[in-house]
Design goal:
globular; single chain; five-stranded mixed β-barrel; OB fold (Dihydrolipoamide Acetyltransferase, E2P); alpha+beta
Length: about 170
């Protein structure tokens, strides 16, 4: 086979492989509304009034749950979301913190520390607080829907196959 034909076949195989991997990725769980803004908690914390009542789709890692008399608050470190709206924790710094406000009592067992969540809701103001000794402004999100990700869901659609050129060794 000539070199040009080999090159075309390799490019076609690579394109097919990428399409096949993309087809395996789960679809987004929440559909943005016309008023959904694409921003991050750290941006909102800098000027919360600018985002009052805006809809958001945010995700991140649970820090802790606080149950109050008529609602619960879940403190979350925000992370960017992938195309399936799963938080991208690996290789990404935090995106700022926010407080998810849920009606009624939330069992902390349902939102354990360190678990990954994605939610949709609207910005319902902000609250001054502290992260350690540092002052912090927490955006408050009135939650419409939330989803806690299982390890299987976080790995769904991710390939264990990698492509590369070169020589390597795997030592077990």
């Amino acid at each position: 086979m000539n070199q040009h034909l080999t090159h075309i076949l390799l490019r076609g195989a690579a394109a097919f492989g990428l399409l096949a991997l993309a087809a395996c990725a789960p679809a987004p769980i929440y559909k943005p509304s016309p008023t959904t803004v694409v921003t991050s908690p750290d941006i909102v914390s800098q000027s919360p009034g600018q985002f009052a009542n805006a809809d958001v789709i945010w995700g991140g890692q649970v820090v802790e749950v606080h149950n109050l008399a008529d609602h619960s608050e879940v403190e979350i470190v925000g992370y960017p979301l992938d195309s399936s709206q799963r938080p991208k924790v690996a290789n990404h710094g935090g995106w700022g913190r926010f407080i998810a406000v849920l009606p009624g009592y939330v069992e902390s067992f349902d939102y354990p520390t360190g678990s990954l969540v994605t939610l949709t809701g609207h910005i319902a103001g902000s609250r001054d607080g502290k992260v350690g000794e540092a002052n912090y402004v927490y955006p408050l999100v009135s939650v419409a829907q939330s989803h806690r990700w299982t390890p299987d869901e976080m790995n769904a659609g991710k390939s264990n196959v990698s492509f590369g050129v070169g020589v390597g060794a795997v030592i077990h």
